[in-house]
UniProtKB/TrEMBL annotation:
<dbReference type="InterPro" id="IPR021820">
    <property type="entry name" value="S-locus_recpt_kinase_C"/>
</dbReference>
<dbReference type="InterPro" id="IPR001245">
    <property type="entry name" value="Ser-Thr/Tyr_kinase_cat_dom"/>
</dbReference>
<dbReference type="Pfam" id="PF11883">
    <property type="entry name" value="DUF3403"/>
</dbReference>
<protein>
    <recommendedName>
        <fullName>Protein kinase domain-containing protein</fullName>
    </recommendedName>
</protein>
<keyword id="KW-0067">ATP-binding</keyword>
<dbReference type="InterPro" id="IPR000719">
    <property type="entry name" value="Prot_kinase_dom"/>
</dbReference>
<dbReference type="GO" id="GO:0004674">
    <property type="term" value="F:protein serine/threonine kinase activity"/>
</dbReference>
<feature type="domain" description="Protein kinase">
    <location>
        <begin position="1"/>
        <end position="140"/>
    </location>
</feature>
<keyword id="KW-0418">Kinase</keyword>
<dbReference type="InterPro" id="IPR011009">
    <property type="entry name" value="Kinase-like_dom_sf"/>
</dbReference>
<dbReference type="GO" id="GO:0005524">
    <property type="term" value="F:ATP binding"/>
</dbReference>
<keyword id="KW-0723">Serine/threonine-protein kinase</keyword>
<keyword id="KW-0547">Nucleotide-binding</keyword>
<dbReference type="Pfam" id="PF07714">
    <property type="entry name" value="PK_Tyr_Ser-Thr"/>
</dbReference>
<dbReference type="GO" id="GO:0005886">
    <property type="term" value="C:plasma membrane"/>
</dbReference>
<keyword id="KW-0808">Transferase</keyword>
Length: 181
């Protein structure tokens, strides 16, 4: 099964004038699901926007969100992209095969659009028609807010008393792994 297909199309589940719905069973691929869907079973058109934003950042970086590891910090890909953008180092995020053949302003614009799509709050995310306009336009883009699932995990063997390694994620997400006895 292709993981980039499992989570898209949630918006097709709507009926009539619905803009949001709930589900009792969360189905999708971790790394692509929006926070409101993964945590609360709430999905909307903005859930698909989140998934699209993850794909944009994966394409630009040449790396997958799920299982992303960086030597400088322990953020996921979304947190890494947001951090690099805020530090003015967006071009360092780019896959080497893209950096040689692409216009840097278009690349940075794509990263910003990706970050706008993965913002924590669905109301802050653009709709897909706006995303298309932003990708093809030279207009000014908003400053992205913190992405959903911006997680700083504790490094094994790190000094946990250090303030540089928080005891929990920014959004207080806890993941429990179930193992057979």
């Amino acid at each position: 099964m292709n993981p980039k297909i499992s989570d898209f199309g949630m918006a097709r589940s709507f009926g009539g004038n619905e803009s949001q719905a709930n589900t009792q069973r969360v189905v999708g691929t971790y790394g692509y699901m929006s926070p409101e869907y993964a945590l609360d079973g709430v999905f909307s058109f903005k859930s698909d926007v989140f998934s699209f934003g993850v794909l944009v950042l994966e394409i630009m970086s040449g790396k997958r969100n799920r299982g992303f590891i960086h030597s400088e910090h322990d953020n996921n890909l979304l947190g890494h992209a947001w951090r690099m953008h805020n530090e003015g180092r967006s071009m360092e995020l780019i896959d080497t095969s893209l950096s040689q053949s692409s216009n840097s302003s278009e690349v940075i614009r794509s990263i910003i659009v990706g970050l706008l799509c993965v913002q924590q709050s669905p109301k802050d995310r653009p709709n897909m028609s706006s995303v298309v306009l932003m990708l093809g336009n030279e207009g000014i883009l908003q400053k992205p807010k913190q992405p959903g699932f911006f997680i700083e995990r504790i490094l094994h063997g790190a000094d946990i008393s250090s303030s540089s390694y928080p005891m929990s994620s920014t959004n207080d997400l806890t993941i429990t792994e179930v193992a057979a006895r």
